[in-house]
Amino acid sequence: MGSQAPAALAPAFASAARAQKLPKVELLYSPFADCAPFFVARELGLFRDFGVEVTLSPKGGTAETIQLLASGNTEAGADDSGGSP
After folding, report:
1. pLDDT tens digits for range 2-40
2. Which residues contact 75 (CB under 8 A, 6 or more apart)?
3. Residues 30, 63: contact at Cβ < 8 Å?
């Protein structure tokens, strides 16, 4: 898929999302990492377009995110460790 594929698919997901209550996801981020795309996506409504309601929550660091994910107390988090995949 090209770089425009997600945008092209958004209308199909959006109509299904409007028909039902959106699942809620808390996304932890570090204010020290480059997380601007999460905020841009929220402001543009991209999360809702793809059928999810996202809450962006600041965190203290990667260790805190790992603990919250492992315990099931949050659904998603951004890693700011700087390591490569």
Report:
1. 445 555 555 555 555 455 688 888 877 777 667 888 899
2. 25, 26, 27, 69
3. no
Exposed/middle/buried for residue 34 (C-beta within 10 Å: 0-12, 13-18, 19+): exposed
In sequence order, the 6+-apart residues with CB closer than 8 A to the CB of 53 are 22, 23, 24, 25, 47
For tokens 């543009």, the residue is: 44
* pTM > 0.70: yes or no: no
Report the pLDDT value the prediction gives residue 47, as an integer from 0 to 100. Answer: 92
- What's the number of CA atoms in the CB half-sphere (13 Å) around residue 53? 7
The answer to whether 70 and 30 are in contact (CB under 8 A) is no
CA distance 5 to 26: 25
